[in-house]
Amino acid sequence: MSKRLGLVIDQERCIGCDACTVACKIENNSIGHWIQVETRNVSQKDTPSGQYPDVRFEWLPRLCNHCSNPPCVAACPNEALVKREDGPVIYIEENCDGCQACIAACPYNVILYNQDKNTIEKCNLCVHRIDKGIQPFCVICCEGQAIYFGDLNDPDSVVSQKIASREGFQLIPEAGTNPSVFYCPPKPRNRL
Amino acid sequence: MSVNNNEIRKIRTACPAHCGIDACGILAHLQGDRIIKLEPAEFPNKIDRRICLRGLSSLDITYHSDRLKYPMKRVGERGQAKFERISWDEAYDIIVENFRSIADKFGWRSIGWVLGGPGAGTTKFGAYLRIASLTQSTRVSAWGYGDAGLPCGSRVIFGSQFPYMYLFGKFWQRNWPELLVVWGANPGESMPLQTMRKIMDAKEAGTQVVVVDTRFTVTASKADEFLGLKPGTDSALALGLMNVIFQNKFYNIEFIREHTNGPFLVRSDTGKLLRGKDIGDKKANSYIIWEETSNSPKPLRKKNVQSASITGTYDVNGIECKPAFQLLKELTHEYPPEKAAEITGVDANLIIKLAKKLGTTHNVTFFTYMGFTRTYHGDISLRGLCSVASVTGHVATSFSSGYLPAVLNWDPFLKAVPDKPSFHRLGILNLYEAVISGKPYPIKALWFSFINFLNQCVDHNKIINEFYPKLEFIVQTELFMTPSARYADLVLPVCSFLEFSDFVSHPYPYVQLQQKVIEPLYESKSDVNIVAGLAEKLGYGDYFKGGEEAMIDMITNHSSLEGYNRETLGKGAMLLRALPEGGNFPLNFRTPSRKIELYAEQLVEDGQALPVYLPPIEAPITPGDKKYPLTFIQGHSRFRTHSMFSNIKSLLKLNPEPIVEINSIDAEARDISDDDIVTVFNDRARTTLKARISESVGPGVVNITEGWWIDQFKEGSVNHLTHDIINPVQNKIYEPNMHMNDVAVEVIKYKEGE
Question: Which residue in B50, B218, B695, B696 has the most chain A C-beta atoms within 10 A of its own C-beta, making it the best mutation to test that interface?
């Protein structure tokens, strides 16, 4: 079976620090933030939900889901977006004419338009690193050690184990995209 | 140049930013003479590889277009930031001329070195101490700008500058407890790597985590239980917990007898400890216990300590006495859970549950830091926490020498010439009076290094109107034209951490070398080299020969660091030696009694022998009874290390401006909506900024994260609102603290022109 490279992000360990956002921008020299950390269930970032003192924070780093059925690839008229056999959905800058059809097609709102270049930009799963056998930059810079990278098709990989043991879930499963980015929900509290 | 410009070289260094103990190892990628990238460097233990969003952004400091590039002297009024370029030679001449003329009139001690947080750096701090020592001038200690409250309390109860090794030494060795109580600290933002990661590792391994804080923080969000208490009421919570612990006999009597002064008899008439002389013992100063086996008072001995009574009232030669523990117990009678709940705002059931858990759990770790001690009685807050840990026996030690994991050789800096007197010492809050009123002696010139004094210290208007005008000469070493640098007479450009070498004694259990990656940019110099240049002119050049390298050798030259030197450390972080087999440092306390002092005899006259609850000095914890009904606190932000990184564009993109967090109930009462511009004010001053309605603070509390530069506010700043009130007890124990989290304010919608 071929590889299906992807990420697992553990919300239990995510402290919402934005280091992934900063790391990604530096590594990829991007215009926008390819990973953005959302504070769940509230309208303002870094405000808790609920009423003091019964409140909670839940962070969700959002990035390209490297879908198995990527609508962006289907929508792109120029072969600027490619689904690699081993999983990553990558964009090829020189093929992009900035039509933004992919942005409209993506249900996750994680493809950005780069006005300076009139191209789109998004997470490439650090293929320039993983092809050399090193982990994506966000993984090694994650303060909470909450991001795992690996082969989702290998049942023994850390990512597969996390998904199995921690009820890993995908975003917007009803879109039928079958993302290669999974999330592990926060664990229930062991109250006094 | 022979080096191929495209070739990338990698140099391992360490980030010494003032988060200090996180001290991430950094691998700098160098192309030609430019650093193109930073990434987390390896550690001997793979899991310790780490970096944070600020460390990642460090190149934005090094290559910032606003860097100060050359020495400058002031040509306009102070504060106007009008400066003129001069040479280093001219700068040194100006300094020497001013220092000499001031020293002639007022003595060298009227010249002070205000050294802020050196972070994990050592020699950059040491060099200033050395020149202060040589000139017998004044070292201004910066503990008092927020970090003296905790040492005051720790010195009283444990006899050490810090309580850390006693409370959580084992935790840092990844020895996970069943229950972890994080009290008054937010490592999730201020120590995400060295501590927060471990908290999450522990939790994953099954540790139950409780967070006690005045704010619902990142750390609190990972807790199994959050106890949200009103600012400055920590000791009431501690007394409430002990009330339940004592009522249910959950205390650890063996531990109390062995390691605390709980069994020591206290005279009811004087409050002083009963001594040998009072019962005719030949050792006049020995401590006396009530021996249960003989039912009589006896001097404390190793062999009778476990038969000491810790409760009851006794008649000793007509003097009524009680064991110190009995007095503590009686004090807690006044704080049943309901009363503690009323004062602290924490649900009484939660207090009972936590107390029972503390008393019935075998392995408990307390983690704490400075934040909650930045209230007027913050020292007692710490003693309250440590008392809870002590009576339940949850005190241990697994590394020695206090805060620093390794013993460093500070002697050459603290005392440059062994048989001569060294520098004078003033706490930073005592400095206000020394400058303004000349007490205890006048200070006429100040040199500020790695401190953004005006931005970070209390009572802005007092500094501007009363403090600065009294100073004849001000020098500042800086990277940027900070709010403080604007008031200097001379500004000296300093290197970023990638441009000089230093020894970094963190993170536990490692030591590292901060290796110079590139030559100093522009005309900047490292602090060590700035001092060395000045020393040359003052005739002390010999003491700084060899510059940074020689200073590093000086500090590592200690028996505990044999084999750790520039050469060996150049290859990477080095693990400190493991303890001998079965090793655990014995519990030793450097208090007067060599025990944990649940009862502090030195504070009897102050009414603080016990960890009493005394309300905050300004924080209006009872709603509705004060002119300024809201308590203003200053949390830490992950986007800055104090006032560092405030001017970094990439981080400002994520966190663009100061906001005041206000609870929905308080906001509604004031007709304030999210993102409204509001004014926070008290009698001292006002500051205007954006409001954020947030349930991270309870009703009655507003939070603005510290470190924003003054010019980033629409008007004012956090320290326009703070006060310089000195707690005399802290002044007596160690040095007085600034009480940044004990401030009363009101908030109103901002109206243009008002």
Answer: B695
Per DSSP, the residues of B578-597 read: PPPTT--------STTSSB-
Cα–Cα distances in angstroms (integers) from residue B153 to residues B69, B231, B295, B382, in the given order: 43, 17, 34, 6
Query: Interface pTM (ipTM) of the complex?
Result: 0.96
CATH number at residue A172: 3.30.70.20
The pLDDT-based confidence of B169 (bands split at 50, 70, 90) is confident
CA distance B185 to B170: 18
In the predicted structure, residue B401 carries a pLDDT above the cut 50: no
Q: What is the pLDDT of residues B14-25, one digit of tens each?
A: 999 877 688 999
CATH architecture type of domain B630-749: Beta Barrel (2.40)
Q: How far is CA B618 from CA B614, B621, B724, in A?
A: 12, 9, 12
Domain ranges of chain B: 72-145+409-502+522-575, 163-401+590-603, 630-749
For residue B580, is pLDDT > 70? no
> How many cross-chain Cβ pairs, A to B, lie less than 8 Å apart?
124
C-alpha separations of B454 from B144, B486, B496, B673 in Å? 14, 10, 21, 31
Rounded to an integer, what is the distance from CA B116 to the centroid of its chain?
11
Nearest residue on chain A to B219, alpha-carbon basis: A15
Separation in Å, CA of A37 to nearest CA in chain B = 10
List pLDDT tens digits, range B123-145.
Answer: 999 999 999 999 999 999 999 99
Chain B residue numbers with beta carbons less than 8 Å from the beta carbon of A189 are 223-225
Tell me: domain B163-401+590-603, CATH 3.40.630.30, correct?
no
Residue A35 lies in a domain: yes
Q: Dump pLDDT digits (tens) for B631-657.
A: 999 999 999 999 999 999 999 999 999
pLDDT of residue B403: 40
pLDDT tens by residue, A92-108: 999 999 999 999 999 99
Domain count, chain A: 1
Contact B51 A141 (CB under 8 A): yes
pLDDT at B566: 95
Residue A139 domain boundaries: 5-69+124-184
Q: CATH for B72-145+409-502+522-575?
A: 3.40.50.740
Across the interface, of B200, B225, B353, the residue whose CB is closest to A13 is B200
